[in-house]
Here is the input.
Amino acid sequence: MCLTTIIRSSKKTWSGSENFQKGQNSHENRNRTHANEILPDHIRRGPDPDHGLRALHKPGGDAVSGNIYIPDNWVVIKFGGDDPHYRVLGGWSGGYIDGDSWRMNSGIVRVEDVLHTHSFNFYGSTGSCYSCNKIAYGLRINNTHVWGQLVEIHGDKVELMPEDTDWMKIDWIIK
Here is the structure.
């Protein structure tokens, strides 16, 4: 099972835990409370201040059993040709200092519908998990250029899956 957190933005940080411990009732603290209820201690805190939940929110974040990525927006691309498969293309909106980023998974092998977070968890062939908000489907400036390059390179062998696709009914392993 993929670990899922409530805050989906890649730019959230988990600093200021002293405010949380004092019991201040902000929106961010309510999300932390929920995360604290569902995640084990070693994931919640991590071995040092730069580990733990923050790592789950940025591209390249490290987690206990594989990487977990929570993109700001995402699409599913079907690759045809000699090795047909599906991949998630995720995008993260950056700021002034860090800029936008994107990441594509290794190839979808299964999906879960996570009702309590309104997201789909797409598992890749390398064990990574992309936890994708259901209402964040689509290309944005952070990943449109990648889609354009894929079309330029592969032509009609790549297909952008429609937003209304029933992800739970797809046979992810194409034979």
